[in-house]
UniProtKB/TrEMBL annotation:
Entry annotated with the keyword Lipid metabolism: no
Keywords tagged on the record: Membrane, Transmembrane, Transmembrane helix
Highest taxon in the source lineage: Bacteria
Name this protein carries in UniProt: HTTM domain-containing protein
Transmembrane intervals: 85-103, 110-127, 133-149, 161-181, 223-244, 251-268, 274-291
Higher taxonomy: Bacteria, Bacillati, Actinomycetota, Actinomycetes, Micrococcales
Amino acid sequence: MSVSAPERRPAVRSRDGRVRALVGTLDARLTAPGPGYRLREVHTLVALVIGLRLVARDWAAIAERPAALTDGLTFVSWLPAALPAWLPVTLAVLGTAGVALVLARRRAHAGFVLAWVCYAVLCASWGSSGKVLHNDVLTVWVAVPLLFARVPRRDQDDERAVVWGWPPRAALAVLALVYWLTGVQKLRHSGIGWALSDNMTWVLRQGTSPHAAGVAQWVADHAVLASGLATGALLLELTAPVWLLWRRTRALFALAVAVMHASIWLFLGIDYSAWVLTAAAVAVPMSLATGRRLEDLRPLRAAIGRS
């Protein structure tokens, strides 16, 4: 006998109630008050990552980009098809100046926005058709919530308020989402075979790493090891929200992704250092208990004492 619509309605209401309760819980955790110093730490560290990317690359090489690669530009479609070499260099200098403002805590919000805009435009111009390359995409996206943060003044570091609490948590949520989507995309396009087939074996064989080509070939010759590497990477990406949900496992996640990306660099020669630094810039400060500051960590105190 079929169930009538009135009999279904309580179940629907119950399910909707659970969804609303879950959303309410997540919203409450995201917007809970936080100390000003925690926002300052995350804000400053992400700005430093942007600054390192701005100074570490020869952005003038953008001027050598073939005109065919500019077809269909989106994010930077307002730029001319052929960029003069001085323009990307100027953007890099302006962005670095913005980072300096953040470090000096003078108009830190304006400095961060300036640095991010210059960095995002340069990253989009570096690739083709306005696409930010995967090496920099995590840093670009994690910084977005911080664009809307009201940075605390020096005398507000110890204050607790919602305005200080939500930006670093939002950056943490974006970090988790990007890693999770990376794993989901692997499953969407290749299925579980991405990890359990000979996919990683062929990736290692075709890699051109100058660092450990012999080791990469040795791992490729052992299918279990190659599959284990792929499975570990996939599981780490898919479980990123779980790692980053709990304070005590956030620093472990930063360490785990550092190991994963270091192995990619070692075996394939692909530089994901921006991902490692961005994950650490957000996850490590957010792993500390309330009342404990980043500068309280012993390695930092020792480094400061030697300086």
